[in-house]
Amino acid sequence: MAVWLWCLFCLLASSARHDERATEPHVNRDGTYPLAFSTAWAVLGPFQAGTREGTWGADPLEYLGGFRALQYDQDSHFRSSLPTNGTAKWSIVQAKQTTSTSTSANASLSISYPDVDWDFLKVVYGWAAVQYQAWARGQIVVTGNASIPVVLYTDWILEYWVDDVHYFGGDFFTFRQAPAVLHLSPGTHAIDLRLVRDVRALGGVNDPSIDVLLELQKAPGALELAKPGILLSDVVDGKLATPIASVILRNSGKHDVEIIDIQISDVRGPFPSPLADVQVVLGPNARLTKSQTSPPSKSSLPRTFLVAGQTRPVAFNISLQTQYASSIDCIITYKVGNHRPHLTLSVSQHLTRSSIYAPHKFTYLHPGGMVSYAMLRPPAKNATCHPRNATSLPILFGFHGAGLEADNGIVAHALDPVPDLCAWVMFPTGVTPWSGDDWHNWGFADVEYAVHSIQTWMKSVAWQGPDIDVGRWIVTGHSNGGQGTWYALTHRPDQIVAAAPVSGYASIQKYVPYELWQPMDPRRAAIMGGTLNSYRHEMLMENAQGIPVLQQHGEKDDNVPAYNSRFLSQKLFEAGTNSSYYELPGQGHYFDTVMTTEQLVRFYYKYADSVETIPRRLQDFTFVVANPGDMGSKSGIRVLHLEDPGQYGKVVVNGHSIQTSNVLSIEFDPNLMQMSSITLDGQELDVSMSTIQSGAMTASKVEEGPWKIGDLSASQGSKIYRQGRQLGAMTAILRTRGSFIIRHQGKDTAHVALQVSRNLHQYFSADSRIASTSPASISGSGNVISVCIGQAPPSFHPNFPIVAGATAVTLRDWRGRLHTFSEPSGLAAAFLRPLEGEQLELVLWGSSQRRLAQAARLVPMLTGVGQPDFVVLGESASWRGVEGALALGFFDHQWNVTSSSLV
Ligand SMILES: *[C@@H]1O[C@H](CO)[C@@H](O)[C@H](O)[C@H]1NC(C)=O
Ligand SMILES: *[C@@H]1O[C@H](CO)[C@@H](O)[C@H](O)[C@H]1NC(C)=O
Ligand SMILES: *[C@@H]1O[C@H](CO)[C@@H](O)[C@H](O)[C@H]1NC(C)=O
Ligand SMILES: *[C@@H]1O[C@H](CO)[C@@H](O)[C@H](O)[C@H]1NC(C)=O
Ligand SMILES: *[C@@H]1O[C@H](CO)[C@@H](O)[C@H](O)[C@H]1NC(C)=O
Ligand SMILES: *[C@@H]1O[C@H](CO)[C@@H](O)[C@H](O)[C@H]1NC(C)=O
Ligand SMILES: *[C@@H]1O[C@H](CO)[C@@H](O)[C@H](O)[C@H]1NC(C)=O
Ligand SMILES: *[C@@H]1O[C@H](CO)[C@@H](O)[C@H](O)[C@H]1NC(C)=O
């Protein structure tokens, strides 16, 4: 474990100044503690909830004006589909535990409804039945004279109110990365919790209680470390495996903070080491050599601001030039507002040493602009490699399950029993313990960046051993990592030598059915389903054709039922793939050697040493594409655009003859095709000429017309196309290149801007810069989230089909007809818009502050919610869910609203 220390006047004390808060008493004069939670909570429930539906609202109490408008009354009855007699009531529940110390207060609640016949409901609706919602109201009591800055952790909670302030996001999976910062005045504060039960978080087998924990921690009211220590590579052969490092900082004060500088202040070890041996490199271009005499050159640093309440990771480079260091200390210099003198914060980190051949941590920059890490085990000296292929070895991935860090021994040492594999072994994190978004957009980008950062690692450690073939992947993983293995297999078929998904689930919908969502029009259901197409592995099994697959699952698994693997095993067979399925009799979800059973060990050795050429050249195969934005090629074929992005595209290849459906633009790798002509949907295309100039050949359909050689933009002039990273539903916003940029208007939008930043960090460990609206504020390569009340900022696209004005939203449908939405109770909208190149903007718009909060719920955060490209919400969505949307759907390749949308 990392050690850390607070250090406001640390070693470089010359410019440091303490602030007042430390002089506050920690215990009140009467001996009570300054912070406490009430022990009695007023609870109202249970009500039906669909899998991940809470994001859409779908809260029945909103029909009555919201829980916050209701007062405890033991005689009132509320209609509800779950309890006996169809009525839910208030009850008073004693907290399971409340504790206070001089600096903190905790409350844990356990809410259960023994009067509901859960077992019978489960027989009918399965695990969907034990996901339900309720509300609880308690109090925070603050004593003493002064307002106290605190952070509030909300384990397993999605949404809450403190007094009159709404917080959406909470900490549904207990990441504890970005608690909200509050400044609590003396007195009593009401806290209302929306409790939403989720099987993936709280389980499906035992008593379906909702167990949550609240924790208030007194905060310094200034810049502080949000997480102890520095994220650093391990030290191999006396050097950091890679130079990039990061600290996670939180501003718990009331004023914005700017980071001025990060410097090494000390390196400790058994041998004294001069400071000059250490270099800190900050920012993309600046390189500062540590020296106590020359002041840091501020102008060369990227300006890093943390607005009041914000948590941000800050990246910097360190290179150790002394072999014997055991720990390092850094000093972070910052200023509050425009004040001088500067303040400092210090952070210390023990160094972890590792043999270069053992799994060790190395760091790199995620495309989202923050530092991530993976555990890497380079090929052993005695690796048993086929002599013909010993110079460039494949990579074997081990994807971890939900709730685990990759540096946990359960993950990083799972393949220790197979030390001499002829492969690079990597355990990526996917950024968070839930692999970002379950190894999808955010998590999978992490995997690909980790692979490409091995080159940096090789330089940094002066690697002399075998090279890596970054295009040859053997993929395995357990649980959520088994699901990630399916994702890699179905989305990167041309890179996969072989795949072994272990105890994985088929898709979010197969894991816990969506049966209990609020009812909706089938067109809406189709749009909602379409947003999750890319993650339904059961629909993509044909992409595994030609790839050896080994499946393994415990027969008695009550966490991820073996049904998932049995089902996909059948689908693989029907798709004509070569797979084997091993069900382990009597075994559950996990046991110590689950990743090194006899068949898996044989599998790893066999495919690590395989000499089969990758990508495979297949004669007859089918390729299914849900979203070209996250899909690689199969046998050299890539789909670049779908006609309707809400529907699967299909490519069926029989030698020279190719049939497509719902495909608008397609690319061929001539090296794999090796033919002079192809027949595309019955149309003969000469591909001999065009293959000569470039590495790839593209064919596109123009205005529903015939196939032509060339891409869409070439054939249709200078129009703005939706392309590459912009493709997909609203989750495409996660394919950012650089930190997110959250721009907003000012005071009225600041709370939501901060909430978006907090949720992006909580759920993805992402970095975001919060800026007020001005042209300069969107300079940067990252995707932009625009937060606005009335009048959305101008669109980069000159003729964008959605215009959000002061109180109304106007939408141009696929026939060119204009629809204007406006409601007396106000409107909310969330939609994507293009920026230059493949950069993307997500507009969150409300006609009022309240409506803006409704729009902001839709920012991608939890997997399985299913946000389409655009949504216009009326008030009733807060209880009717998706049925309360006035319009929703997709944009096509020209950013027009598709005919499959609902307007
Ligand atoms: C259901 O309603 C009946 C008739 O009003 C009442 O006797 C019974 O106690 C109610 N049951 C519950 C669990 O509230
Ligand atoms: C509050 O809960 C957290 C998380 O369970 C725990 O680490 C901490 O010790 C608790 N604090 C008190 C005062 O009980
Ligand atoms: C509250 O404020 C008064 C007046 O400023 C002061 O005399 C008293 O010591 C304070 N009490 C506490 C508990 O800080
Ligand atoms: C860190 O150093 C690498 C080269 O080793 C450089 O590419 C990168 O831009 C630097 N990053 C920062 C944040 O200074
Ligand atoms: C390679 O070395 C490891 C121990 O370092 C040993 O366990 C393994 O059996 C060796 N493999 C071969 C093929 O010699
Ligand atoms: C392995 O060796 C064979 C035969 O020399 C060669 O065709 C193939 O490209 C090699 N594969 C790799 C990954 O180096
Ligand atoms: C299927 O896999 C088995 C075992 O690896 C292999 O012997 C066989 O050739 C494969 N068949 C096809 C069609 O790839
Ligand atoms: C579709 O988009 C293109 C490019 O912006 C535009 O020229 C065309 O009018 C749009 N079609 C409709 C029906 O809105």
UniProtKB/TrEMBL annotation:
Signal peptide start and end residues: 1-16
InterPro entries (UniProt xref): AB_hydrolase_fold, Peptidase_S9_cat, Plant_Biomass_Hydrol_Est
Domain Peptidase S9 prolyl oligopeptidase catalytic: 433-609
Pfam families: Peptidase_S9
Coiled-coil regions listed in the entry: none
BP-aspect Gene Ontology terms: proteolysis
GO molecular function annotation: serine-type peptidase activity
Keywords, sorted A to Z: Signal
Full protein name: Peptidase S9 prolyl oligopeptidase catalytic domain-containing protein
Source species of the chain: Polyplosphaeria fusca
